[in-house]
Hints:
The complex is a heterodimer. Chain A is an all-beta fold. Chain A contains no helices and eleven strands. Chain A starts with a strand and ends with a strand. Chain A binds chain B through residues 8, 32, 34, 36, 41-46, 49, 88, 95-97, 99-100, 102-105, and chain B through 4, 6, 31-32, 34, 41-46, 49, 91, 93, 95, 97-99, 101-110, 112.
Amino acid sequence: QKEVEQDPGPLSVPEGAIVSLNCTYSNSAFQYFMWYRQYSRKGPELLMYTYSSGNKEDGRFTAQVDKSSKYISLFIRDSQPSDSATYLCAMTLNSGNTPLVFGKGTRLSVIA
Amino acid sequence: GAVVSQHPSWVICKSGTSVKIECRSLDFQATTMFWYRQFPKQSLMLMATSNEGSKATYEQGVEKDKFLINHASLTLSTLTVTSAHPEDSSFYICSATPGTGDEPQHFGDGTRLSIL
């Protein structure tokens, strides 16, 4: 079993839809959870950063962490064509100075 | 803030050539930087952890003599792919964390390396 599992998609939704992206993990020691967005031939761009369990909202994006289930989610409301990208979940044991473990990434297409 | 810059963004070279990739933190100092490699439609895989003023820590299976890392200052880490071969063709990405390390990692835009 891989440390972080993420459905690679592709996922295709109409503009304005609510998108739900998920990852599961096996290492209960992970404390910090991140979502990155990656456009083709670009580096990952940080979207959300959460510590331990709970919810965090930033504009159209909501991140949820359920440590008891080892499950994290990213919700995108009112999705736009510009949201079309690959979304990577990542997590780490300690703070920013420890290596990240990434999911495989989910490729999202938002159709106008 | 928290901008990480990589150079070059794309390089094509002949087999046997050595290639140097630079990673700079533009508006913060970083005692630790990370180097990742990403193959097409795959996720990022950690290659090594670069520590300012000391030797890099390499992940299992990554040849330290082939992928030379130098972190000579708090704003610059370099990755040199020595005697590159076609199988080294990949997307190389660096990351760094500002401040005391409590903030998340920010990534450069990556370097696409193509070895002919």
